[in-house]
């Protein structure tokens, strides 16, 4: 019941401003990592949300910072569970994410 209520709140917030949902998720994941920083799955989720936020924002510097945070999360997670190959795939994707983000939002790739 509690999860369903939280889902409805997030859904309503998303319809108003999709970026707020990512910010809220990042905040909650950071709280979870303060409780247990060794949870590789929480680090993975945090990296995913930072990647999502980076793709969603049209601001190049904010996007780059989000992608950098995602890379940091994935690298730490990889260190916690070196046999989980999804971390490597996520690292490859996010390492080129800024190129896709700029194309998506209409920025010139040559200007940085």
């Amino acid at each position: 019941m509690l999860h369903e209520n939280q889902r409805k709140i997030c859904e309503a917030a998303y319809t108003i401003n999709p970026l707020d949902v990512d910010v809220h998720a990042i905040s909650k994941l950071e709280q979870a990592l303060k409780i247990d920083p060794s949870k590789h799955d929480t680090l993975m989720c945090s990296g995913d949300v930072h990647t999502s936020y980076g793709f969603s924002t049209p601001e190049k510097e904010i996007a780059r910072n989000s992608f950098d945070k995602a890379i940091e999360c994935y690298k730490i997670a990889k260190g916690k569970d070196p046999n989980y190959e999804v971390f490597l795939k996520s690292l490859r994707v996010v390492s080129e994410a800024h190129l896709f983000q700029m194309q998506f939002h209409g920025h010139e790739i040559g200007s940085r």
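Confidence is low (pLDDT under 50) at residues 108-112. Helices lie at 2-16, 18-35, 40-56, 60-80, 86-95, 97-104.
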